[in-house]
Design a protein that fits this description.
about 210 residues, alpha/beta, Pyruvate-ferredoxin Oxidoreductase, domain 3, six-stranded mixed sheet, 7 helices, globular
Length: about 210
């Protein structure tokens, strides 16, 4: 896996999915690793249910000048919902990786039948990124013992693509999640990370 010493990450989902907490975990992990980090957030029209986008930029070779990357330059997409992940594709560089939750939260247009299927969105993502890992965040969160840890599952699946040690990931999770949820969030992170590891092993087996 390509682990860059500097890079840009876009995280996207809808309100209530823990997108901003996820961005904070990643930013904290980068800081603990010794990187310069900047983070920005864009909220949708509604606190719960509206679009939420956060950018995290890190560098180990100098200061990060701006929290916002140029469109077409982002290395890693972390998507918590399929439609929002598709909307973020134009941020990505040609060699980018996408780690996306297998979840579609139907917008109001669904009531009139004007919506694509989950598979349609998955096809768009897989056709437009260099590599895509699709994760069932809610299922793995239930296995971790807390359905609200789905966001941490997705971070765990994205973790192998970032140059951060496991110890620093664990510390970042513990300081960023609500008090009393550290154990279930860390279990969720490890389950997500195992999905990425299994995906990488499958690629090796096909070579």
């Amino acid at each position: 896996m390509n682990k860059r010493k500097s890079g840009s990450i876009v995280l996207t989902g809808v309100g209530g999915q823990g997108v901003l907490t996820a961005a904070e975990i990643i930013a904290q992990a980068c800081l603990l690793e010794g990187y310069d980090v900047k983070k920005s957030e864009i909220h949708g029209m509604a606190q719960r249910g509206g679009s939420v986008v956060s950018h995290v930029r890190y560098s180990g070779v100098g200061a990060v000048a701006s929290p916002l990357p140029a469109r077409g330059s982002v290395d890693l997409l972390v998507g918590f919902e399929l439609l929002e992940a598709v909307r973020a594709l134009d941020w990505l560089a040609p060699d980018a990786t996408a780690v996306v939750n297998h979840l579609l939260l139907a917008p109001p247009a669904a009531q009139t039948g004007q919506i694509c299927s989950q598979q349609d969105y998955l096809t768009v993502i897989e056709k437009n990124v260099n590599a895509a890992i699709i994760v069932n965040g809610e299922e793995l969160a239930r296995r971790a013992g807390n359905i609200r840890t789905a966001n941490t599952v997705i971070i765990g699946a994205a973790a192998p693509f970032l140059p951060i040690s496991l110890d620093n990931w664990q510390q970042a999770v513990e300081v960023s999640v609500p008090r009393g949820t550290g154990k279930s969030n860390w279990e969720a992170f490890k389950l997500g990370r195992s999905v990425a590891a299994a995906n990488d092993q499958q690629k090796d087996d096909r070579v």
